[in-house]
Design brief:
The protein is α/β, with parallel strands linked by helices and 210 residues long. The protein has nine helices and eight strands. The protein has helices spanning 13-24, 32-44, 49-56, 82-91, 95-110, 121-125, 139-149, 159-175, 197-208, and strands at 2-6, 27-30, 61-64, 67-70, 73-74, 114-118, 131-136, 188-191. Strands 2-6-1-7-8 form a five-stranded parallel sheet, with helices on both faces. The protein has a three-stranded antiparallel sheet with strand order 3-4-5, with helices on one face. Helix 2 (32-44) packs across helix 4 and helix 7 crosses helix 8. The chain is globular and about 45 Å long. The structure holds 2'-deoxycytidine-5'-monophosphate. 2'-deoxycytidine-5'-monophosphate is lined by residues 9, 31-32, 35-36, 88-89, 92, 118-121, 169, 173. 2'-deoxycytidine-5'-monophosphate (DC) is lined by residues 9, 31-32, 35-36, 88-89, 92, 118-121, 169, 173.
Length: 210
Amino acid sequence: MKIAIDGPAGSGKSTIAKKLASKLNIEYIDTGAMYRALAYYMNQNNLSLEELKINMETLNIEFKEERTFINGKDISDFIRTNEVSSLASKISKDKDIREKLVDLQRKLADKVSCVMEGRDITSVVLKDAEYKFYLDANSKVRAIRRKNDLKGKDKNISLDKLIEEIEERDLRDKTRENSPLKLTEDSIYIDTSYMDVDEVVDKITSYIGD
Ligand code: DC
C-alpha cells in the first residue's frame, strides 16, 4: 500500500504522516529531509549549486529509524534550522537535484508499504499511489507551528518574520518550473488549520480503513 501526502510547510504533513504510518504499521518516508540533507551538506562544505551537483553523485543519503544520514553521519539534528529550510527550498527548484532524489524516493518506496510525504509525491513520485492527500493550513497557523518547533537562536525570530518566510517559501514551491507543489484532481484536500493531529489522522484513516 502506498499513501502519498503533499502540502506546504507547516501543514502538519510530517507529524501526521509519521503517526499514520505507525498506526498502519508501515514505513514513513520524509522526502523533505532529503532536500534538507543536500542543503545542509552544501552549506557545511561551502559548495556552489554546480559543485553540489557533482558531489551529489557519490553522496550516500540514508534513513534509519526516522534519522537522516549523509555518508554515514547522522545529521537529523541540524537540518531543521531556518537557514536549511530556506536553502532546501531554493535547491529543490533544480531539475538534476529533483531527478536524483525522485529516483531515490521511488527506490525506497518500491520495496515497502509506506506513507510518503513532500511536495510532488501525489503529482510525480507516487502518481499511482492508492491514496492521495493534500494537507493545508493558513499561513499564520503554520508559522505558529513552525515557531513552536524552532530551537536555539531561531527561537527569537518574530511571528511576522516567520509568516513572511513561509509565504515566500510557498510561492517558490508552488511556482517553480519543475514539479511545483499542487493539488492534484485525485487528492483529498484537508484543511488542518483548526484540527489537532489525531483528528487529521482519524480523517485520513476514515478514507483508508485501518
Ligand atoms: O517538507 P520540508 O519543509 O521538510 O521540505 C523542505 C523543502 O524541500 C521544501 O521547501 C521544498 C523541498 N521539497 C520538495 O521540493 N519536494 C519534496 N518532495 C519535498 C521537499
